[in-house]
TrEMBL record:
One of its GO terms (molecular function) is dipeptide transmembrane transporter activity. The keyword ATP-binding does not apply. Coiled coil: none annotated. This is Solute carrier family 15 member 2. One of its GO terms (cellular component) is phagocytic vesicle membrane. InterPro entries: MFS_trans_sf (IPR036259), Oligopep_transport (IPR004768), POT_fam (IPR000109), PTR2_symporter_CS (IPR018456), SLC15A2 (IPR043381). Its main location: membrane. It catalyses: carnosine(out) + 2 H(+)(out) = carnosine(in) + 2 H(+)(in); an L-amino acid tripeptide(out) + 2 H(+)(out) = an L-amino acid tripeptide(in) + 2 H(+)(in); L-alanyl-L-alanine(out) + 2 H(+)(out) = L-alanyl-L-alanine(in) + 2 H(+)(in); glycyl-L-lysine(out) + 2 H(+)(out) = glycyl-L-lysine(in) + 2 H(+)(in). One of its GO terms (biological process) is dipeptide import across plasma membrane.
Length: 726
């Protein structure tokens, strides 16, 4: 007898299942939240490769549920499948976490461990995905239908709660905890691994309470076999058969008419699924392209709270919890009052439009974000800016162009980089510098597609030229970059937050990433008393700074130059696109699941759910192809996706217009009436046969057939022949 929770009809076993699902979703979404930045900042991949691998992993996670369903239904059963694949899941998390430890091997080892870990995680999470919810439903008796429905609501809430908490917590573990001299990805992956271990332990702890149904064969496999048999038979028979109006009718020689009719119903829905992957291609970019966009935005809410770029994904889970009741209780009833027939397919088409508009909003944000980005120089060119440290105006002329027509003032922050033509991969240029009426010349070698700062300082012998290569790429985690230019004859050490800079005398330091924030008292280590603390002010998101150290009144004084402008578009401008994409998800995803369930015969619901999950997988494949193959600017790529989804929405709307909604329960009624009609026909045939006394060809006088088959047709022919002969 199933144990119940005190005073309720809920089985005690569902507590273990709900906790297991919460922990598993925490582990999955927590790991995935920081995955794109891990590829960028730890493995040092570019944005396109990082996006492609992210979506390849996401796609694999939605291909593997079919494998999990086959294993559970045909071989191990749901309980053992969850146990065994959860172990694979845990191993994948552990391998992934070990790959994020810098001291474990070289970069090739880190990449290998990361890929193996992700593949194991994909098989684990995808394999148990179709089993856990169904296993929870198995715990209820048939008479507890309302409790079962409420369980699925609780189950859905546990999924979103795990997602919401993990997307808040794991970015904090990544960015706010320092380990091995940088962001702590090992901890950010290790905590989800620990939660997956907890999920497995909790699930095993309830093993004595579970109701376990043995595997009863896989309907998905039977459907595939039936379709394959029909195609094979139709291929071999080239002659048209008027009795077989549909190609699936060729399977009647082996499979029942009911199964064939059910497959026809499912195929009609699956045809509608063909345009759906494009929605998921947009939706799943929240964790890749939209996270990358957030790294180039201002992430500060006031002076106290700073959000991580990978934490913005929490908005989706939070808004889902808000929007589901709002749509069900307010929006849909209000639309109904306007006498608008809101069918499921119309809701889904509207959800597509919302997602396309979300990417339109993302395009507008991106157009403003890129204004602070320094575009790299094209082939055959380089970028150049000039620092004047000579305590007076300097005129700079480069033969063959007019890049710096005006004199350059002392310690002026260069307004922008100028593009310098090289007419090849590299070139040595003679630069003419005029200071206080005295002209001098310096020769410098420039290479294409690089950015440089030309540092001009005065000495007793005249103007001294020094060329420094600049780092113009914005930090992938949104933090600023900093370097120091020391004009004094003494070396100096400076500590900015957790980062130490060693600046040689009359030289420039390395370019390093520091945390965003105010730095009013940077510690300064110098043998003389010229330097104690320095006020650098605000080092803002995404900027690159050069701080020139000069001496004034016997003290070191910093002069901050902004090489790359700080991010000036606030992260709050991403909120509209998250609101729009989540509204689209509520109308598209939830409605799509309900539509799939309502249009499928009882024993075919798992087949349609598998088809639905495949649309998510193929959506990620689309992003993978575009990210690696298109090579577009980001705003153009966003606009392309928005346009593609609108085009697909039109196609889907046309297909939906010609779709006829069905009630699968009517199928039972139809086949029941057919069965009664067959039984009545068989009875009349038997009676007539007995009256005639059919004995020809050795036939029994009570020839009877229960189903439409070859034997039935032979029996009927015998009756007709006997009647004619009589």
């Amino acid at each position: 007898m199933t144990k119940k929770l005190c005073g309720t009809n809920y089985p005690t076993s569902i507590c273990f299942i709900v906790v297991n699902e919460f922990c598993e979703r925490f582990s999955y979404y927590g790991m995935k939240a920081v995955l794109t930045l891990y590829f960028l900042t730890y493995l040092h991949w570019d944005k396109d490769l990082s996006t492609a691998v992210y979506h390849a992993f996401s796609g694999l996670c939605y291909f593997t549920p079919i494998l999990g369903a086959l294993i559970a239904d045909s071989w191990l059963g749901k309980f053992k499948t969850i146990i065994y694949l959860s172990i694979v899941y845990v191993i994948g998390h552990v391998v992934k976490s070990v790959g994020a430890i810098p001291t474990v091997g070289n970069s090739d080892v880190h990449i290998a461990l990361s890929m193996v870990g992700l593949i194991l995680i994909a098989f684990g999470t995808g394999g148990i995905k179709p089993c856990v919810a169904a296993f929870g439903g198995d715990q209820f008796d048939e008479e507890n239908l309302s409790e079962r429905q409420k369980f699925f609501s609780i189950f859905y809430m546990s999924i979103n709660a795990g997602s919401l908490l993990s997307t808040v917590i794991t970015p904090v573990l990544r960015g706010d905890v320092q380990c091995f001299g940088g962001d702590c990805y090992a901890l950010a992956f290790g905590v989800p691994a620990a939660l997956m271990v907890v999920a497995l332990v909790v699930f095993i702890a309830g093993s004595g309470l579970y109701k376990r149904n043995p595997p009863q064969g896989n309907i998905l496999l039977e459907v595939c076999n039936c379709i394959g048999f029909a195609i094979k038979r139709r291929w071999k028979r080239s002659k048209y058969d008027p009795d077989r109006k549909h190609w699936l009718d060729w399977a009647e020689e082996k499979y029942s008419k009911r199964l064939i009719q059910e497959i026809k119903m499912v195929l009609r829905v699956l045809v509608l699924y063909i345009p759906l992957p494009m929605f998921w291609a947009l939706f799943d970019q929240q964790g890749s392209r939209w996270t990358l966009q957030a790294t180039r935005m201002n992430l500060a809410f006031g002076g106290a709270f700073i959000i991580k770029p990978d934490q913005m994904q929490m908005l989706n889970a939070l808004l889902i919890l808000l929007f589901v009741p709002i749509f069900d209780l307010i929006i849909y009833p209000l639309v109904g009052l306007c006498r608008i027939n809101i069918t499921p397919l119309r809701k889904m088409a509207t959800g597509m439009i919302f997602a396309a508009v979300a990417f339109g909003a993302a395009t507008l944000v991106e157009l403003n974000v890129v204004k602070t980005v320094v575009d790299p120089a094209p082939a055959g060119n380089c970028l150049l800016q000039v620092f004047n440290l000579a305590e007076g105006d300097i005129t700079v002329k480069i033969p063959g162009n007019e890049l710096f027509p005006q004199p350059i003032p002392y310690l002026q922050d260069p307004p922008k980089y100028e593009t310098l033509p090289l007419e090849g991969s590299s070139k040595e240029l003679k630069i003419q510098v005029t200071f206080k009426g005295k002209a001098s010349e310096c020769n410098q070698m420039f290479e294409e597609e690089k950015a440089y700062s030309l540092i001009l300082s005065s000495t007793a012998a005249g103007i001294q030229c020094e060329l420094a290569e600049d780092f113009i790429k914005k930090g992938e985690d949104g933090n600023p970059r900093l370097r120091f230019l020391n004009t004094q004859p003494e070396a100096v050490n400076l500590t900015v937050g957790h980062v130490t800079f060693q600046v040689p005398a009359r030289n420039i330091s390395a370019n390093k990433t520091v945390d965003r924030g105010e730095y009013p008292d940077v510690s300064c280590s110098l043998q003389s008393e010229k330097c104690s603390t320095l006020d650098l002010g605000l080092l803002d998101f995404g900027a690159s700074y050069t701080v020139v150290l000069t001496e004034e009144s016997g003290k070191f004084v910093p002069h901050k130059m902004e090489d790359v402008k700080a991010n000036n578009v606030h992260i709050a401008w991403q909120i509209p696109q998250y609101v729009l994409i989540t509204a689209g998800e509520v109308m598209f995803s939830i409605t799509g699941l309900e539509f799939s369930y309502s249009q499928a015969p009882a024993n075919m619901k798992s087949v349609l759910q598998a088809g639905w999950l495949l649309t998510v997988a193929f959506g990620n494949v689309i992003v993978l192809i575009v990210a690696e193959g298109a090579g577009l600017e980001q705003w153009k790529e966003f606009l392309l996706f928005a346009g593609l989804l609108l085009g697909v929405c039109i196609i889907f709307s046309i297909m939906a217009h010609f779709y006829t909604y069905v009630d699968p329960e009517q199928l039972d009624k139809v086949f029941l009436e057919d069965s009664e009609r067959d039984e009545d026909k068989d009875y009349k045939m038997k009676k007539k046969t007995e009256d005639i006394g059919l004995t020809k060809r050795g036939r029994a006088p009570n020839c009877k057939c229960a189903t439409f088959s070859t034997s039935h047709l032979l029996c009927s022919s015998g009756v007709d022949l006997a009647a004619k002969g009589e």
